[in-house]
Amino acid sequence: MNETIRLKITFNFNYIETIDNFLINYNIIYKSFNSDVSYVFEVADTDVDKIIYYLLLLTSKQIKIENISSINQNQDEQEVGTDKPIGSKDAIDEN
After folding, report:
1. Would you list the DSSP string of the chain?
2. 4-70: which CATH topology?
3. Are 10 and 63 in contact (CB under 8 A)?
4. pLDDT tens, 8-27?
5. Domain map of the chain by residue range?
6. In angstroms, rounded to a whole number, what is the distance separating the alpha carbons of residues 73 and 76?
7. Handedness of CA 77, 79, 80, 86 (dihedral sign)
8. pTM for the predicted model, two decimal places
9. Closest CA to 13 of 66, 62, 56, 53
């Protein structure tokens, strides 16, 4: 059974039309347009290597590609609030 991988890509505005045309059949979850363009999209794990290869080829390697699938899964598993705030009784050294 194929697993879905969530990729985040960041690239220059010059490649936006090329990337849009390439990703037309993929589920784009998020788009951000700041100094660069960022997209988050889902792809089958069996297609990840092929997708990365073509994205690098289309952008002349001027792209940042991150697998953020594990980030989303691990956020739920992390303990929240284990650090003691500055100024709390437990954080003050008792010397």
Report:
1. -PPEEEEEEEE-GGGHHHHHHHTTTSEEEEEEESSSEEEEEEEEGGGHHHHHHHHHHHTTT-EEEEE-HHHHHHHHHS-SS-SPPTTSGGGS---
2. Alpha-Beta Plaits (3.30.70)
3. yes
4. 999 999 999 999 999 999 99
5. 4-70
6. 6
7. negative
8. 0.70
9. 62
